[in-house]
Amino acid sequence: MEYLQYVHEEYGKFLQNKKVAIVGPAESIFFNESGKYIDTFDIIIRINRGFEMITGNESYVGSRTDVLYNALDFRPGCGGTFESIAGIANGVKFICCPYTPRPWHNIQRIETLATLKPIRFMNADVYNKLQLTCGTASNSGTASIVDILQYNIQQLYITGIDFYRSLYSSKYPPQVGLMDQSAKAIEDELGFKRSGEKGHNPDHQYLYFKKLVNLDKRIKLDPFLTKIIKDNRYDKWDTIPRK
Question: Is the CB of residue 165 less than 8 Å from the CB of residue 139?
């Protein structure tokens, strides 16, 4: 616990007064060639296997990863394998888990990873409040945004996280069990439409996010989010305009 508290403090110092960009795996990241703009930020954060999208796509997604927010699940369809995460450890300053310690976390492997780079978990009070407020299990992107905003940053630019409004990018590493990038496949993956299951409801998370944008002036949105946040059709999964 003392180690985790030390990492929290060091992470806060690292983020202090910085302009931060968080880059997700949504298809909307490829709607604009914003890579050079992303690279101007003091700190660039990526989620789960997002660091695997960089090579060949720098003009869209930027070229570096300073912080990795990863579920630390080590399954290919979740945060990526232990080997792939360990392979980029030298290039990042911190590895953050946007969850509290869970039963499925392999503590031994996480401790091994911690010998390469500082690892921290999301504060339990912040995490639990998020789940309660959203009324659903949060995805990594939602929790990562909330976690970052706990710190004294100057700005948070959000791109490629649109709560599945544009679905996954086809360039994101294939998800195990996700047969295609369709809305139906993502419905099945998230489980929010199955009777009796809360799953990861993207509508609940998106509406929470919209409120957060109005409350926190440090947030800056990419062109796609700027457009859809004013269009109420995007509030509900079944009314989202899709091609």
Answer: no
Q: Give the span between the Cα atoms of 223 and 215, in whole angstroms.
A: 19
Query: 2-239 maps to which CATH number?
Result: 3.90.1480
HSE (side-chain half, CA atoms, 13 Å) at 114: 16
Q: Where in 52-93 does DSSP place strands (E)?
A: 67-69
- What are φ and ψ of residue 42, in 5° steps? -60, -40
Locate the domains of the chain by residue range: 2-239
pLDDT tens for residues 21-40? 999 999 999 999 999 999 99
Distances (CA, A) of 46 to 6, 153, 207, 214, 215: 22, 17, 22, 23, 24
Strands 19-23 and 155-159: parallel
Write down the residue that tokens 């909330």 correspond to.
Answer: 146
Structure tokens at 229: 């946040």
Exposure class string for 38-61: b at 16+ Cβ within 10 A, else e:
beebebbbbbbbbbebbeebbebb
Tell me if the pTM is above 0.85.
Answer: yes
* Tens of pLDDT, residues 129-179: 999 999 999 999 999 999 999 999 999 999 999 999 999 888 888 665 555
DSSP code string of 100-124: ---TT--HHHHHHHHTTS-EEE--H
DSSP state letters, 154-211: SEEEEES-STTSS-B-TTSPPPTT--SSSHHHHHHHH-TTSTT-----HHHHHHHHHH
